[in-house]
Amino acid sequence: MTPGRRFTAIDVASVVMAVSMFYLGTVHDGLILNTVVCGVICLVPPVLRYSGVAELPTPIAVMVLVAPWLHGFGLALGLYISHPDYDSITHSVSSMVITVLVFYALTAFQHYGSGNVNFAGRGLALMTGLISISFGVYWEVIEYLSDVFTTSVTQYSPFDTLSDLVCDSIGASIGSAWAGFYMRNRSAAEVMDSFHFGDAIMDLVRKG
Q1: Structural domains in the chain (count)
Q2: Are 170 and 98 in contact (CB under 8 A)?
Q3: 3 pLDDT exceeds 50?
Q4: Residue 71: partners with Cβ closer than 8 Å, 6 or more residues away
Q5: Rounded distance, CA 174 to CA 118, Å?
Q6: Helices (H) and strands (E) in the chain — how many of each?
Q7: Same structural domain for residues 109 and 170?
């Protein structure tokens, strides 16, 4: 099913947030790479839709916009330094995004798995939460290895690491609770149909 070409509120928000990131990158030369990457990510929803690949459902589209924008905004304005709690907010939001992505991935496996995979009800929400929390744990390991083998400084203290893990758990819990609520009156087929995948993607799914 080919996505429509109507101009939506998500498109407007994507462009505005991306442009703001690019602008902040020009103002803060040392952060231009970070802000440009955040801006490019903000453009993912409209690019996917107008290219005919897929149309992201509103919940994940909003999260894809908000998470990188908050990160880039915080870097540019020094909020990570001036407001220590800001890191907790962005960690929680990022964890929610990952959790929702995991939810959609598990739903896709269920729908296109020819009956070999079956996540339903509380089981889906539980698996979503557990996998997402695992992502958070391994992310901290990656940061640790980065600090050990490079000049980066991402692990400030054991307290910082544990705080990040707590925030990851909070974000994953909220995301998995949302997944359970979202699936109360929906089937896996309905969730996948909400993506309006393009013909090329559906051909690949059928061949797989």
Answers
A1: 2
A2: no
A3: no
A4: 34, 38, 90, 94
A5: 22
A6: 10, 0
A7: yes
| 164: confidence class by pLDDT, cuts 50, 70, 90 | confident
Same domain, 98 and 197: yes
Give the domain range for residue 104.
84-208
Task: Look at residue 2 and tell me whether its pLDDT is greater than 50.
Answer: no
Count other Cβ atoms within 10 Å, centred on residue 73. Answer: 18
Cβ–Cβ under 8 Å, residues 17 and 63: no
Rg (the chain; Cα; Å)? 18
pLDDT band per the 50, 70, 90 thresholds, residue 1: very low
Assess contact for 139 and 146: CB atoms under 8 A.
no
Polymer length of the chain: 208
Query: Does residue 120 register a pLDDT over 70?
Result: no
Coil, helix or strand at residue 40: helix
Number of C-beta neighbours around residue 69 at 10 A: 23
Q: Are residues 56 and 109 in the same domain?
A: no
| CA distance from start to end of the chain | 18
Q: Are residues 152 and 137 in the same domain?
A: yes
Residue 43 contacts residue 84 (beta carbons within 8 Å): no
Do 108 and 197 share a structural domain?
yes
Residue 34 to residue 68: CA distance in whole angstroms: 10
